Structures are given as C-alpha cells and as structure tokens.
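Researcher: Quick one. two chains, 772 residues in total.
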Amino acid sequence: MALMRWQLAYPEQPIPWKVFALVPMLVGVVVFFIGRRKGPYLSMAGFIFIGIGLLIWYFVLGETRMPEGVMLPEFYNSLGAMHGTIMVFLGIVPLSVGAFGNYVLPLQIGAPDMAFPKLNMASYWVFLLGGIMMLSSFFLPGGAAQSGWTSYAPLAVISPGQTVWLISMICIITSSLLGAVNFITTIIQLRTKGMTWMRLPFFVWAQLVTSFLLLLAFPPLEAAAVLQLMDRLASTSFFMPSGLVVSGQVLTEYTGGGSPLLWQHLFWFLAHPEVYVLILPAMGIVAEVIANNSRKPLWGYNSLVYATVFLGFMSFIVWAHHMFLTGMGATMATFFQTTTMIISIPSIIILTALFISLWGGSIRFNTPMLFALAFLPMFGIGGLTGLPLGLAPSDIHLHDTYYVIGHFHYVVAPGTIFALLAGIYYWFPKMTGKLLNEKLGKVHFWGSFVFMNGVFSPMFIQGFAGISRRLWDGGTTYLHAQPYLYLNEMISVSAWLLGIFQIPFVINLVWTLAKGKKVGDNVWEATTLEWSAAPSPPVPHGNFKSEPEVYHPAYEYSLKSNGRDYTPQNEPLKG
Amino acid sequence: MEIPYTVSPRPDTGIHNGKLGIWLFLASEVMLFGALFSTYILLRTSAIDWPLGSDNLNVPLGTFNTLILIISSVTMVMAWASLMMKDFKKYKLYMGLTIFLGILFLVVKIAFEYAPKFAHHHYPSTNTFFGIYFVLTGLHALHVLGGILVNGYFWGPGSKMWKKAPQQFINRIEIAGLYWHFVDLVWIFLFPTLYLL
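Model:
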C-alpha cells in the first residue's frame, strides 16, 4: 500500500528506496542486537523489520518493474491486484474467522475443541500452501496478477500472472470450505450443557452466519476459477466473446461464444456475501467488547440475532448491484436495487442496537473499548456511503471511482480492522495471560483513528470529481482530475503516518510477550465462558478443566445478586 | 475433556458430528455443481447455434455408465446394511463391488469416451459445448476418483476399525455412502443435460 500511495502522490519521481528499505533494515538490526539478550520475541521483530526492508529493496531494484525507481504501470496494477487479494483473502478472513473464530468460538460455547481437529489442520495447511503461492507470484517471471482482485474476464484471461492467482485461490477457497464445515458443526453439536441458542454470545452467532456464507458462496467462485483456468490453459472460451480484438489484433486461439458477464455473475455471487464475511465477525467482536465494557447487557440481543440471520440470507440476492454498468436492463436493476435497500435495514438494526447498548452504561474507556467505539461511526460512514452505490442512477456516475474505494475501505479498514484490533487487545490476556500496555495502546488508537480518516475521507471528494480508481498515475493526464490531485499527497502522507503509528502496536505486542506481568484469569470481569470457566491461557488439550454448565443468557451484567456487577454464565443466579 | 458426539448422536439434534459435517459439505458441492449448471444454461441460451448432445456424444455408453453408477449406489447401501447386520464378509463383497463399478465407470469414461473424442479432434477448446462438457464430466470424474479412494481405504486398511470400534466404522461407511450417492445423483443430472437435451 505504501508503494502504491507514493506512486499516486508523485507519479513521475523515483521512489526514495534507500529511505524505504534501509531505515526499516537499520531499525531491524538495532532491535535484533538489543533483543538478542532480552529473549526470542524481540529478535523475531528484528527479523520482521529486516524482511520488510529486503522486500522493498527487491521490488525497487527489479529493473523490469521500476526502471530508475519510477514505477511501471504493469507493476502498479500488480500491486493493486495483490493488495486487494492479500488483504481480503489472506488477511482479514483468516484473522477474523480462522484465528478469532478458531480460538474464541469453542471457548465461548464451552467446547473442548473444534468438532474436526484434523480437518482444521488440513484447512490450515491448504491455506498456507495457497498463501505462499499467492505471495511468491511476485517473484515469478511474468510477475503477479494484474487484473485487480475482481479478475474480470476477458482481460484476466490474457494477462500474465493470473494462472498462479487462480490456483492459489482454489487452495484458499478449499481451505475456507473445510473451515466452514468445521465451524457450523462445532456450533451446532458441541454447545455445552445449558447453552441454548439464545444463550450464545453474539460473536458465536456472527461466526455461524459467516460460516454459512463461506460454505454456500465460495463454491461458485471455485467453479469460476476452474473455468477461467480452463480458458487460460486449455484455450476454452467460457469467458471469451466471439471476435475479441486486443491491441488491434483479433484473438485467433479462442473460438469465442463465451460471456465475460458470466464471470462477473459468478464472481459477485461470491464476493457480495464475502463483504458480509468481512464485517460480521467484526460486529461480533465489537458486541462482545461493548457489552463487557459498558457493564450492561447488549440491548436487543434477539433482534441482533434475527437481523444477522436475515442479513446472511439477503446477502445472496444482492450481488448484481456491483454490475449496474453492464447494461443489465431496468427490470433486473430494479430488483437488485430493492434487495440492496432491504439489506441495509438489518445492518442498521445491528448498528443501532450496539449504540443503544451504550445508553446508561458505566463505560470503561480502555483500548479495546476505544477501538470498538470507533468502529460504530466508522462503519456507519462506510454503510451510509454505500447507499448511493446501491442505486443505479447514482452508481453510474460513481462506479469505479475513488468513491467506491473510500466506501468499502471505511467498511473494512476503520470498520473491520478496528474491530480486529479491539479483539486483539481484548483477547490477548486470554491467549497469553498478559495484559497489553494501555498507554502504548492509546497512542496506537488515536494515531490510527486520525490517519485512517485522513487516508479515506478525501477519496469521497476525488470520487465525486470522477477520478477512476485504477489509474497508475492517479489521474494526472485527465483534465477533470486536476483540481483534486493535491489530495493524493494528503492521502499518501496520512497513509505513511498510519503505518508509523502501527509501530507502537508491534512494540506493545513484543514487549508484553517478553516482559509483561501475569494477570488473573478473568481480567475484564466478563460473563462469557471463555473468561469465567477456562484459565488464561486455556488448558492445552480440552480448553476447560471440567465441562462448564450454563444457567442464563450471555450478558448478565449489573445484577448485584452475588455482590459483583457481573454474573458469569456458568454461575447460577441467586434469588 | 474429549470431543463429544463423535460416535453417538447428540440428543437434541439427533445426529453425530460426522454426519452433519458431510451434509454441510454436500450442500457446498450442490453450490459448486449448481454454478457449473448455471454456466451451461447461460452459455446455451446466449449461443447462436448449440450442438446437440445426442449428435456429438456417445449416448449408449452414457446410458451404460448411468446404470453402472445406479447399481454401485445399491451395492453401497448393501455394504452398509451388511455391517448393520454384523456380516463383515458380505460387507467386503459389496464394498469391493462398489469400488469395482466405480473403476469401471472411470475406464468407460476415459478410454471409451474421452479418448475417441480427442481422436476426432474434439477438445475443450473446440467450442463452448465441449468446454462445459469436459469441465462438468471431468470434475465429476474427479469426484468419482475421490470416492473410490475413500471406499478403497475402508475396504482395505481402514476396515481394521470394525474389530475395535464397530459403531464408528458403521458411521464412516454411512458417511462415505452419502457422498457416493451424491456423486451418483450429480451424474443423473449430468447425463440428460449433456447427452440428451
């Protein structure tokens, strides 16, 4: 991302790669030599910094990518495609579903493990294989995929680097499928005694709906990936129309007869539910943190659950609102506009219920709570700016502009990523038995909050001005973009500062792991089973010392029956 | 703590973990083949002229293969039923038959259908009809192969479990059977769609 932003801010100038590469490497070497005496974690951080430096060095010195340090358009496109793919499929989904789901979910329902531990392992290894293939595609002769994370045919079929992208996507999809089967079975079968459906923590509901989306939406993309792979390797014409002309030449190796629109339908049939895969676990995390730190039950738990299930169902019939520009006709457009407007209702119910949950609570402003609180308005902006994109007349102007980038980044960056950070700060004591430093955490939060907005809010202005999202020079050759090009520099500076403000976070993680003090089992005084019934960190095999029994719903805060303001789920209510 | 309900069903859901897992997996398979069938429909409706399956494909061989798969589904049920009646020898016989029929299906498919197609220069790239034909039947053949491997394991080394944990072994055969019936079912949709329509 940093490389892309430099390119957009200063398209003609060479990248100061010495600063980009040597500074992190120097920091890494220093950290490594200091950390050598303090323990293995710090040396690991040192290695990470050195690695980042080496990677940038490699990219910039590759003459085919960036002659004399100026980025070529092809390489910019590769960075764009890989940024989307990595963040969505290798970053957020594995972290929110794979990591948090796998770790927290069995603990919250009182299960000793996932239902199929071997399947879980298989899912991880297939994912790792796909991830390594995806990342290593940068180092292949043709370079990485260049067609965006959407890989629209027919361009994707004829551009280099796409084959490896498709094969690694098939691996990643297979991994998600195995994971989804495992999650759903675990939630349905392994709930402990007394854990009825309406006593489940909201996070578990969010994971359940997410898993159903993964289970049913990913196979069509797998089919589409197989078809595109056939187009590339066996010269079939599933996505290749007849008489396609590329650079003034008719493509002769394809017989034609296929439909590029078919790819878009199959892709968005996955990719719209995928958006909810990105946001639902985040909502689950935020609900947990807010209920715990406002010290009162979630407001409207039942409506939250029903809204989430309805959201999951609706997400399967809105996909074509990504395709208003394909000329699908007014009838189809009307249908998908209507479903899109309907799907915004459950999102608003969820957001409203979380806001009202704060009402009258005695809120503790610790770092996880700050991130969770910031999630609410940030996701609100992301959601509301989506409405003009869901209506065909306004979408026709805004489609493929920076407005779209601003919209979905507000959903996933200050939305999902803030929620994930809240989750990391909240569950870190569970995983390690140590509490992250609050002061460093607050520096991390405020820096991230300010510069996250600095990065993404100017994009709305650029989008209204009609600047296209895929221009490698940021739009310098277009007259209508001229008045708004100065914003590129602001966005880029914010992006680098945002990156710099993640350093306190890395230091915090490493420092706490190496030097942090042990805290008690239930450091947040929470009611859910992972805190109240299991030790921190949990028992290696089986999670719990004995099978917990559940007596009441998940968020019984502020009942003073036992002399405390919280009653754990595995403790009967008195009186 | 051990993982519960791996063998015996959970009282309130009435199902054990593995069976729920395979049904969920089959649901995702329905979506996979559903997407490919949708592709078929979209390609066919937008094509100017669509070659008739019965003119280009070998219908008698397809019918023969359909019969083979249906019979193999029956023998699969018989294998499971023999285990329920605690007759291990009959299980071996019926499971062996199922595997044999699966292999026979693949041999007919590859040696007597794919090979002559290639000999007549009918490749996936010839037109979109052959493209979707090879993708659909090829993916189905891969599923058959997977089923044969699983069944082969339960026929050979995996059958040792019968002595130690008979109920768990019966569950495994039932799950493998569900998968095998699904593969059969996919072919029953594939055959008329590609060969007859």
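Residues 37 and 51 of chain B are 17 Å apart (CA to CA).
Researcher: Thanks, that's what I needed.
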